[in-house]
Amino acid sequence: MKTTLNLLIAFVLLGSPAMAQKFITKNGNISFFSSTPMEDIEAHNKQVNAALDVETGDFVFKVLIKSFKFEKALMQEHFNENYMESDEFPNATFVGKVANHADIDFTKEGVYNAQIEGKLTIHGVSQDIEETGTFTVSKKGIAGKSKFNIKVGDYNIDIPKTVINNIAESIEVTVAVDMKPLK
Prior knowledge:
Elements lengths: L1 H12 L8 E14 L4 E14 L4 E7 L4 E2 L2 H11 L7 E8 L11 E13 L2 E14 L2 E11 L18 E12 L2
Antiparallel strand pairs: 1-2, 1-9, 2-3, 2-4, 3-5, 5-6, 6-7, 7-8, 8-9
């Protein structure tokens, strides 16, 4: 697991020698929400690793699937064993870019709209995605936020027919990362 994270972060950090241009976190947040007439399902993960190179716009994150926490232990068990197969596919990753990074002044405090493009890999399946979000630049660092939907079928996540009415085909994902300068 650490090797994969190191490779992802190295991908971002090798782009240029200026360390002040790199921002990282090891405790970002990702949550997801599924709503059906039968049941709402929500989970949170506060162990998200992310890295951003503001000079190049390279942006990566990694999520340990087993770190998602559910209200009910049985939901968490089914999520890891039956749907996400966390032992076989322990991580979800994103490797991409802030497509409009040249339009964002990462040296000036403010809130900036961002276009994010890249490959999202979940359950061993990679899909090209394009999403929107915001970056809030402050003296403390850079906060990134985004909310988007993914279809479980796009990532070969099989939902048994017995619970098909309990899990939405499209899941709302919320990402929030507070990144600090790499020193």
